[in-house]
Amino acid sequence: MKIYKGIAANQVEHEPLIDFLNYVFGMNGTKKNFMTLLPKLYREQYHPENYNFIVTEDGKLRAAVGAYPISLSVMGETLSGIGIGNVAVHPFHRHEGYMKDCMKLALDDAMAKGCDFAALGGQRQRYSYFGFEPAGVAGKFELNKSNMRHAFGMVENNTGFTVKRVCAEDTELISAIKGLVESRASHPVRQEDRYFDVLSNWQGNVFAVLDETGIFAGYYLYGGDYETTVSEIDCIKPENAAKILRAAFAAIGNDCISVTVPMFSMAFYDLLFDIAEGCRVANIENYCVYHYRKVADACLKLKYATCKLPEGEVTLEIDGVNGKEKLMLSVMDGKAEVTPFDGECDYHFTHRQAMAVLFSLHAAQKRELPAAVQAWLPLPLFVPEVDND
């Protein structure tokens, strides 16, 4: 028997790959399939076979793992990464090590290409073996009609702001959304030719909010596989956050919705924390950082730009999955930065500990750090839902 392990390109064509993934994930290919769930990745013109690492036996697919490029711009620094998706093993060929083989191929390739991080959603311990840990802190707010009535005097939208569903043909509105997203200090870098496909991932719906004069004022993403969740929301002017929220809630029409907001999106985070029925601050996804200095430096600068941080410094030695790093984290004289360090470090962390200390909600090791340094954490590494594969 001939076994192949490697990239799918030139081994498996588009249609057999999609058919295999639909089969493994129990999709019938009509009502729900990978091309409609994740159009930004699986349309034929995007060649998902170029990003899938596979195992075949005599040419027949047995396993596949997708490793799709993603990118963040954080305080002007571009962080390159991969989103791991469609981790699939044929049901008759499980427990043969094929998933591990594909994951190793994908992650070795990411490190060889110089990726700064990787992200995925999935069972915690399964992917911890590959260096992934819960991170990406955000608030998940529950908002209901009573909250709206007490906060604004009514549930109905009397703001003068209106909601328009955005279609692929609405190029001006898509361009306006893109411009708003890219104006933020931390934002995903999305390919222009598939921008709408990204926004509508997981069969979600894209909505623009227009002000009293019909001018674009903000947007939100709602529905699809996220059901009653607003997975992304923003506005051009912070003072219009309440109007955007009221227009969105009224247009959705449900008794209760969920809204996910990263902590650095202050206009909506502060507003929702003030009026929502409840908030669960949570690690949203699993991340693996390959270049701690670069990622931590960008995220510490972002934290410093959005919060008042006490001065201090600390040195860390990290045994990362991509090698050892010795770093100095400092907030001093009006500047926040993470720089390489030569010398004996104050603290030594394994990769798993470092991920929790720096980027997660909690780690026992944080208690050992100086109080000033604890106030800096967690650092705001966050990939929006529709960008995380």
Would you give an account of this structure?
It is built from 13 helices and 17 strands. It folds into 3 domains: 3-115, Aminopeptidase; 138-283, Gcn5-related N-acetyltransferase (GNAT) (Aminopeptidase); 289-374, Nonspecific Lipid-transfer Protein, Chain A (2-Layer Sandwich), CATH 3.30.1050. With 389 residues, it is α+β, with helices and mostly antiparallel strands. It is globular. The model has no long low-confidence stretch (mean pLDDT 95). The strands form 2 sheets. Strands 1, 2, 3, 4, 5, 6, 7, 8, 9, 10, 11, 12 and 13 form a 13-stranded mixed sheet that branches. 44% of the residues are buried.
Keywords:
389 residues, alpha+beta, Aminopeptidase, Nonspecific Lipid-transfer Protein, Chain A, 3 domains, four-stranded mixed sheet, 13 helices, 29% helix
Topology:
Layout lengths: L2 E5 L6 H11 L9 H4 L1 H4 L9 E6 L2 E15 L2 E13 L8 H15 L4 E4 L3 H5 L4 E12 H8 L9 E4 L5 H12 L3 E3 L6 H5 L5 E6 L5 E7 L6 E7 L5 H12 L3 E7 L3 H10 L2 E12 L2 H15 L5 E9 L2 E10 L2 E6 L6 E4 H9 L11 H4 L15
Parallel strand pairs: 4-5, 11-12, 14-17
Antiparallel strand pairs: 1-2, 2-3, 3-4, 3-8, 5-13, 6-12, 6-13, 7-9, 9-10, 10-11, 14-15, 15-16
